[in-house]
Input
Amino acid sequence: MDRLGRVAKTWRIAVLLALTVMFCAGSLVGNDHWWPFSPWRMFSTSQAATGSVWSTGIEVQTADAPGEWVRAPLTPENVGLNRAEVEGRITQIEADPSRLGTLARSHAELRPTAAEWTALRVVRRLIVVVDRKPTGEVRTEVLAQWDAR
Output
């Protein structure tokens, strides 16, 4: 069995110390941008016991049921994007709701046998929680709306 030489031991110790310093600094003062040297905020914090939890989604109107808003899955299989990808562009979508037409066109390509979407809106649902239990109260806020007509 070969033993490590002085140089090999020295650089391994230096790397170990540097990583230890980075992980400690990231845990104490870092944020998500320091990852992997800091914990992701979404996994390292918790919500208040009483307040609200929000969820973003889409609702659509179809040619088969005009005027009726129906929840639609915000998934790659349905619109070509994940919910997080849409949430990351909320400010752009609010500034230009015509961007939602892209989701309708993607849906038509991905689901050619499904009813055509004639209108689409992004909604944020605030679920009211008291002592970590949902109260049943849900507040819905329309963030942006697009209409094909």
